[in-house]
Amino acid sequence: MTDVASYLETAGTLAWKVPNLPENTPHRPIKTVGVIGAGTMGGGISMNFVNAGMTVKIVETQQEALDRGLGVVRGNYERSAKRGRFPMEEVDERMSRFVGTLNIEDLSDCDLVIEAVFENMDVKKEIFTTLDRVMKQGAILATNTSALDIDEIASVTNRPEDVIGLHFFSPANVMKLLEIVRADHTADDVVATCMTLAKTIGKVATLVGVCPGFVGNRILFARQGQANRLLNQGVMPWDVDAALNAFGFRMGPFQMSDLAGLDIGWSKGAKTANPIRDALCEMDRRGQKTKAGFYDYDENRNHTPSDVAAKVIRDITGAEPTSMPAEDIVEACIYPMINEAVKILEENKAQRPSDIDVVWINGYGWPADKGGPMFYGDTVGAAAVLAKMEELAQEDPSCEPAQLLRELAATGGKFTEIDTGGLKTNGGA
Known about the structure:
This protein is an alpha/beta fold.
């Protein structure tokens, strides 16, 4: 097998190549960028373009939110300057390229606008309806959604060919990965422009298709689903995390949940598909920000297993705490990721297997020595992955093995050699 370093180098090069997109595809000039939302994501996204010398118009609904957002950005720049990354006088220079506004119509002359508000389809459709009305012809209309249907968002406009997904990862001014999401009607020149723009702002880009969660989060959802299922069997969250830490992840599923905030997508009184999370949030155990979630945290955010969380899990699941070998935990969490990746390739939502590995290496902390889900799948073999998926599917229908996984197991084929032919293009038709 190819050594992992060579594989990842080749994968990183291939990710920039878009099959079926003519090399002479024209580009749209991008000089001024509009960003809707000055929160954590909006501010971080804006910094990428300002750092590349562009002007960014950033819009909020309230002056307080706008001031707070730009204050956070200035603080980020000042910290970077103090670390010697650039002279302190450059802080003001970079901040001068921001134009704050409370009026979305002030974005009308921008070449690209990126919507970065919270994950609510109705809100996003309302924004895109407005953008369709106010933006100049030829402007690219992008959404930073991490999971929602971009075709549905585009449907409220009269120019779906101008709509694309630009899924930045948090913190957006630090994380290298950018999922560029091609919708059904996205024009070729919009795709080409965004791929080139990603290089300009120093990102690692992969072109993906529209499906729930796209590539990275869809695979993450598969892992999280199995991690939650282990809790229902009595395995404690710290045991799951420890197994994934030993595999090479800096953070396991529940450590990551605590960091992100357990209340993402939750509101008081809500009953979701995750009753353990609901119960913890009702107790104001919402993760690191409240110093309590699945773990307890001290003032330095050091974590320790929580007796309170353990009791909540026992009370809700009715399962007695049990131990499980780390190897079994890894298989239960990692093999479903490989299976989901194969389904993504079956559905032609990723250009090639190595793009999936690029996503997970650059966006989710997959251990580099294991090359990504597809590369790792080849180290264990399709037959082993299929056997585990068939076992899991007896209890969880979401683990139904992909048809292509069955074929690989039967023929001894490799995950990294699956050929999808690239995402379909339409030229904006």
